[in-house]
């Protein structure tokens, strides 16, 4: 099933959307070329990447030392993956030529036995597979595999696919349960989901089995990563010195503290977690593993129900870029790494494939429209790694506890996982709009993004064009261009943000519908020219957080459709914390062309604490000495746009003037 | 002047107070004996101190390795200092015998040339004075000097005074501006204020000059600490490895980034800062240095006006136990180290000596009644090092960002500076109640603590007995027991917490008074038997924070007299964040004998957010779906008592139900 779904996906959905086309164009026209410059160390004032140079040295084309992080190879891989997707929708011979050359470089760096990793080739030759815990060897392999699959599927070129297949075969010979094989797995999950993709592209079952091996071994006793540390006498890649051997419990950081089937709370490094959950969902579907599916459901429920920011961000603490514990969602010391939200989207997509329930798509949309696109500047050249919900620029400079929270998007990072991850997601967005079940003759529309879509169902071809005015206006239209002769279903998501109020018209006539798992399921014999109009109510609303989330107590956020809003200093003055919002305020939308790209801002009624009456040297005084806060007009802008004008304070959660 | 003030202080004020006697007794009967056991490594389940053992090894009485921190000697010193004060008020031959033995042990560990430090004697012989930046050599010297002065002044015994004088003479030979001398200073200030005390006790001017040398050299170019790191090739005491040579700017941690006279913002490690400011104020007074006084005023204004918690805590961040920046006072990631508040009290005391203004005493009282005594459990055996204003026990366990914030007081610490510091302060509390200016024939009453006091003024002896019902009831009474034959002044502080409303009666008759710098100055010819009744209004009030303090926006704290109050989970349920307080609530006091030691609790009207209506797996929902928060009765208890019953959440700042 998965294999069939993967092959040719790119040909079936093509995005044509007033909002998203600009992002895709930005990635193609700016991000991909800019990142290529970055990979080649040609960006002034940015930390060098060393990624291309490392491959040249490993290929014997240049002399020098390895540069950058131990996982630097993955940056080139993610770039190639993005290029693969981009070429699938927008042929570009010059870009393809550059990518082909880069692929030749990768091939040249591959070793005789199929091994491929510039760090261990250049710098620690002979130490292959001795530090899975820290050295990201299989992680880098996974990213190169993902790149190869994307590039093969869009261009039909097998060069990189053959390279990574040889590498995967080598990995398959090194890892396993036979005598002389390593019964282990990577410290940073990624290879697992990549091997599933490689299985999809090649049909080679052993890649699927290898993915399952890695997932099944993870967290089993005796703990491989702990024992591996012991074999190295605890010598750490990062410090170069002996460290205490970690306990099994500490392996929670790597989600290897117990078998994955026994895990029910999202713990540890957030990106590792969601990459693993993605592979678990893949395997649950492809192997029919009900126990694994149940684990996925439990982990999903915990993560999205108790550990997710309203922006779709995950990871509450900088320390280990990690989950902390249920309901702990501080807004200012937050992590909410861009890559983690991208991994959350991967996981959601897999769950939608397994069981189309709108809650998965609600979260997918939330992460996409807020945390993910908010991480990138409108020029495509600056990125947030950490995506805060509250920013005080002075704290980012002056408080060590919040130094990781940048108030301004940065150029390419030393550890630059996020920018190419954003690029590859935005270039493959067409994969996230729909899923289909050919067997059940149903197409699910999860996202409201303008697109041409074509699916081969059991009863025949279903094709339609979606047009959408989101996120600024509600209303989506599906016009059929081809339909089977018998009844098939179009299932439209009832997004959580419409409060259950969505209007349906079929060929101009208002129509009732039945809702199954959050989808309006429209089953009939469709004909080319049939028009479905779907209008979920798009109205700005104040949102409250569960009172268990201490950080948001007495506060409200603003949402309108899929967008979370925020207050910025440039519109509202500072301190933002001195403002409160009236719980019964109207939220008046205005389309403001002056906002970057044009956007709907919201006016709201609130109050502002008296600042003028305070002596700056007086920290405290009786409450009775303060006048009632004066009425104030607040202006909220979409969260994803924050930080694109003057730097300043920002907050998503706003104090309520009455609670 | 200073010398005169210091000599015999102990004989002039004797505390007899319903509230404070219990603390002094706790220190004498429990803390001092318990700490002695700790210093001797005889507390089960607590980390060993090694302090006594180190002295034995250094004295050649035992074989072994140095144990504990590089500054472990200071723990014994602080204990001896506390014992000194305790013996001054409560003779105890057995305790004195133990202390004398400990002093003999210290003397035995002193080297031929006067040098005294067990770490460098045992472990790094030959490396004396090569790592002032990190190794606390002069810091430990300072504490032993303070101990010697206290012990000498209470017992008249010179043994330890002679030891530290020899050590100070040795230091004086090592440091200075002559050829072959070190033109440097300690990484952790403390020696400066100690040398001033040694000058006071011995009259030897060279100790004062040496203190001035250390203060004057600090932060001068070229930077001594930076150059010293260079001479060690950056090898660090803490890591044992080469570290990058720090910049002058990084010396802000040690307040050595620029000359002290140019410093105007409190920066760096908070304890180091206030110990230094204390010595600066001492020197400003003793040397008539107006520039230094002006620096003290600026630093005081910044620290107490913009960087102090309402509990009198200072130090906003765990990283470096340090100040962060103006108005940055997070309640949950707070540091507010006990020792820092004690240092703040030292500084305030010196400023009161220089210029009696009630703001100094207001802060002194705030730190004493809240941060300092709150750090100790009611059994005297458990301590907070960090004194948070908001606690969520799960976060202390589950969030690395708040792991330093303990929800329960701990036994003796590995770095155990705080417990003996509390002990020495509480045993010398008599030094903080009054200051007098003999020249001006005035006695200032800064604190309202029952006590017998006697001062030699220019016109003669002034003696009276203060009785006080604080902190539970207002009202203080001063009965004269001896008075000069000419007019002298009793100046009574008008505490900030009375809102300028304080009733005065003299011999039963209500009386007007003039206020100078926050003191009601009563000048007349007093006679034995004269009674002054002084009743500052003691009424619970809601307190607001300056809106620049983001962390407290929309919240209020509760104060009653000198006490800050808090909400605890044991009284109010959890989450505490789900509660709000009505801005116009009455705050009804009740004396509750069931609280540890008996205390006044306060009832207030507030609201509690609906918890029952939330699905635990639902993080967010439209605000409109939540009912109005229900009315709730809140119960606040004194902050200093928190954590003495069941562990749970606690908060000082409470959301207002209307802002």
UniProtKB/TrEMBL annotation, chains A, B:
All residue ranges annotated as the Non-reducing end beta-L-arabinofuranosidase-like GH127 catalytic domain in the record: 13-430
GO terms for MF: hydrolase activity
Keyword line: Hydrolase
Keyword Chaperone among record annotations: no
Domain (Non-reducing end beta-L-arabinofuranosidase-like GH127 middle): residue spans on this chain: 443-534
Hydrolase recorded as keyword: yes
Protein origin, superkingdom: Bacteria
BP GO terms, sorted: carbohydrate metabolic process
Domain annotation Non-reducing end beta-L-arabinofuranosidase-like GH127 C-terminal: ranges: 541-655
Gene3D superfamilies found in the cross-reference section: 1.50.10.20
InterPro entries noted in UniProt: 6-hairpin_glycosidase_sf, Beta-AFase-like, Beta-AFase-like_GH127_C, Beta-AFase-like_GH127_cat, Beta-AFase-like_GH127_middle
Name under which the protein is recorded: Putative glycosyl hydrolase
């Amino acid at each position: 099933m998965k294999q069939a779904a993967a092959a040719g996906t790119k040909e079936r959905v093509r995005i044509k959307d007033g909002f998203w086309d600009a992002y895709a164009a930005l990635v193609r026209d700016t991000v991909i070329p800019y990142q290529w410059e970055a990979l080649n160390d040609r960006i002034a004032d940015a930390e060098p990447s060393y990624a291309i140079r490392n491959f040249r040295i490993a290929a014997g084309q240049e002399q020098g030392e390895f540069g950058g992080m131990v996982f630097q190879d993955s940056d080139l891989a993610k770039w190639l993956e993005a290029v693969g997707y981009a070429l699938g929708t927008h042929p570009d011979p010059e870009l393809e030529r550059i990518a082909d050359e880069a692929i030749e470089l990768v091939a040249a760096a591959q070793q005789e036995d199929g091994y491929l990793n510039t760090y261990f080739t250049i710098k620690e030759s002979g130490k292959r597979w001795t530090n899975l815990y820290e050295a990201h060897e299989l992680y880098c392999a996974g990213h190169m595999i993902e790149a190869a699959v994307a590039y093969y599927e869009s261009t039909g070129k097998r060069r990189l696919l053959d390279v990574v297949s040889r590498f995967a075969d080598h990995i398959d010979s090194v890892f396993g349960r036979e005598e002389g094989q390593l019964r282990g797995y990577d410290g940073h999950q990624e290879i697992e989901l990549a091997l599933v993709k490689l299985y999809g592209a090649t049909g080679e079952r052993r890649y699927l089995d290898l993915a399952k091996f890695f997932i099944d071994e993870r967290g089993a006793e005796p703990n491989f990563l702990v024992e591996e540390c012991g074999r190295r006498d605890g010598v750490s890649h990062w410090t170069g010195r002996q460290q205490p051997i970690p306990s099994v419990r500490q392996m929670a950081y790597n989600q290897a503290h117990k078998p994955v089937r026994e895990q029910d709370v999202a713990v540890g490094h957030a990106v590792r977690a969601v990459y693993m959950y993605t592979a678990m969902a893949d395997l649950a579907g492809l192997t029919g593993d009900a126990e694994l599916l149940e684990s996925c459901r439990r982990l999903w429920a915990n993560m999205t129900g108790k550990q997710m920011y309203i922006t779709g961000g995950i990871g509450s603490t900088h320390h280990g870029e990690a989950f902390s514990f249920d309901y702990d969602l501080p807004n200012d010391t937050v992590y909410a790494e861009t890559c983690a939200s991208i991994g959350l989207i991967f996981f959601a997509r897999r769950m939608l494939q397994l069981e189309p329930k709108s809650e998965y798509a609600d979260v997918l949309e939330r992460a996409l429209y807020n945390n993910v696109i908010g991480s990138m500047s409108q020029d495509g050249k600056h990125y947030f790694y950490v995506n805060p919900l509250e920013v005080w620029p002075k704290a980012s400079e002056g408080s060590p506890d919040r130094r990781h929270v940048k108030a301004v998007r940065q150029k390419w990072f030393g550890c630059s996982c996020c920018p190419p991850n954003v690029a590859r997601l935005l270039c493959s967005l067409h994969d996230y709009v729909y899923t289909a079940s050919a067997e059940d003759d149903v197409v699910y529309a999860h996202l409201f993004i303008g697109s041409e879509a074509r699916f081969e169902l059991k009863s025949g071809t279903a094709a339609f064009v979606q047009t959408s005015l989101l996120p600024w206006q509600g209303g989506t239209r599906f016009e059929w261009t081809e339909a089977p002769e018998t009844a098939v279903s179009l299932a439209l998501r009832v997004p959580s943000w419409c409060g259950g109020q969505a209007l349906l018209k079929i060929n101009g006539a208002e129509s009732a519908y039945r809702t199954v798992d959050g989808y309006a399921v429209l089953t009939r014999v469709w004909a080319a020219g049939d028009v479905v109009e779907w209008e979920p109510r798009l109205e700005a609303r104040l949102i409250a957080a569960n009172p268990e989330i201490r950080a948001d107590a007495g506060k409200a956020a603003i949402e309108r459709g899929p967008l979370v809003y925020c207050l910025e200093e440039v519109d509202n003055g500072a301190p933002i914390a001195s403002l409160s919002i009236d719980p019964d305020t109207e939220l008046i939308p205005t389309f403001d062309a002056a906002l970057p790209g044009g956007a709907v801002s919201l006016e709201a009624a609130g109050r502002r604490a008296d600042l003028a009456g305070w002596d700056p040297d007086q920290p405290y005084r009786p409450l009775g000495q303060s006048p009632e806060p004066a009425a104030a007009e607040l202006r909220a802008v979409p969260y994803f746009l924050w930080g694109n004008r003057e730097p300043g304070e920002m907050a998503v959660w706003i104090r309520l003037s009455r609670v």
